[in-house]
Amino acid sequence: MSIPKTQKAVLFREHNGPLLYTDVPVPEPSDTEILIRLSYSGVCHSDLHAWRGDWPDPTILPLIGGHEGAGEVVAIGSAVKNFKVGDLAGVKWINRTCLTCEYCLRGEETCCMNQDISGYTVQGTFQQYVVADAIQAAKIPPGADLAEVAPLLCAGLTAYKALKKANLQQGEWCAIIGAGGGLGSYAVQFAKAMGFRVIAIDAGNKSQMIKDLGAEVFIDFTQCDDLAKEVERITDGGAHGVINFSVSSKAMNVGIKYVRTLGTFVIVGMPANAVIESNVGDHVNKQFNITASSVGTRAQMEDVLSFYSRGLVKSKIQVFPLSQLSKVYEMMEKNKLQGRAVVDNWR
Ligand code: NAD
Ligand code: ZN
């Protein structure tokens, strides 16, 4: 396949600045990288945070965002052993890890101190061709539907690992805050597949989709006066695991109130400048855990793709042209998307 010199991308030069649909050079892979011709890219709320400049860690500028890209390998660097031209490959949030820092050595690659992040510290997937480190790129099974696989690369992976960190047993209650969003829509399905009882919390416009995904109980946070009391009533004492995927500090500060004694609260959503305040007496009385979760490892990525291939989780997607990324961000900010928005990199 011939590789063009230029391609379409969406980039911005300053935070909150125009999202320009424009021509940029096609990147060349280094010795350890692969070049992927992307078909689809999921749009994560983290991409919106990156555009807004919500977080203290700086992005590169100008930036091409995106970190859920699925496509076909069209070139490989001279040192690449694990991919060949024609393979299907995915680009994740973690584009490269150093393999040598304290955390990489312990197998905790999501904490790598020298990681490159797609669509944040290196150019991401809102372009037609992207380079990715071959070690961290995901192997996508042949014949997979690339629009459906794309959001598994961050949303699916992050939801899966967060559920592991909730440390639940079969039959226990798992409250999923933001259950109708990109991450939450996968979390509901993974939780069900793992044998947990799901209380899904989101706005009413997403209730049907969430129930279809298998939630046992749905609570519309916009209509519920006392969420903590309601969850405690339903679960007879609080949810064993509470995972926050919403972009709301308030939801987190309420969420830690309905964790069951000895249960676990998992932080995933990252609203700008968010702070959790909790009562020390509650901590001592209930001895519950507060932890956080960041994306997932390569091994967990394989698990996620296997769940998908076996039909245990489905991707709830709405497809838009890449050229309309700004419209997707607008809808995301207003919580109007159902599940995950995916962009077609060729429209
Ligand atoms: P999303 O916009 O698709 O989903 C957020 C959902 O939360 C929406 O369905 C929305 O309706 C719902 N919501 C809003 N306010 C709520 C409230 N008060 N109570 C309950 N639900 C509420 O976002 P996403 O792409 O799923 O990402 C969610 C968050 O997770 C973002 O902050 C993102 O940056 C973060 N994230 C973290 C990691 C990680 O590794 N920790 C990875 C990916 C994304
Ligand atoms: Zn993401």
UniProtKB/TrEMBL annotation:
Key words of the record: Metal-binding, NAD, Oxidoreductase, Zinc
Domain Enoyl reductase (ER): 17-343
GO MF annotation terms: alcohol dehydrogenase (NAD+) activity; zinc ion binding
Gene3D superfamilies in UniProt: Medium-chain alcohol dehydrogenases, catalytic domain, NAD(P)-binding Rossmann-like Domain
Oxidoreductase is among the record's keywords: yes
EC number: 1.1.1.1
Cofactor(s), names only, from the UniProt record: Zn(2+)
Catalysed reactions, semicolon-separated: a primary alcohol + NAD(+) = an aldehyde + NADH + H(+)
UniProt entry tagged with the keyword Oxidoreductase: yes
GO CC annotation terms, alphabetical: cytoplasm
Coiled-coil ranges per UniProt: none
PROSITE patterns xrefs: ADH_ZINC
Domain of life of the source: Eukaryota
Biological process annotations from GO: amino acid catabolic process to alcohol via Ehrlich pathway
Protein family: Belongs to the zinc-containing alcohol dehydrogenase family.
Name of the protein this chain belongs to: alcohol dehydrogenase
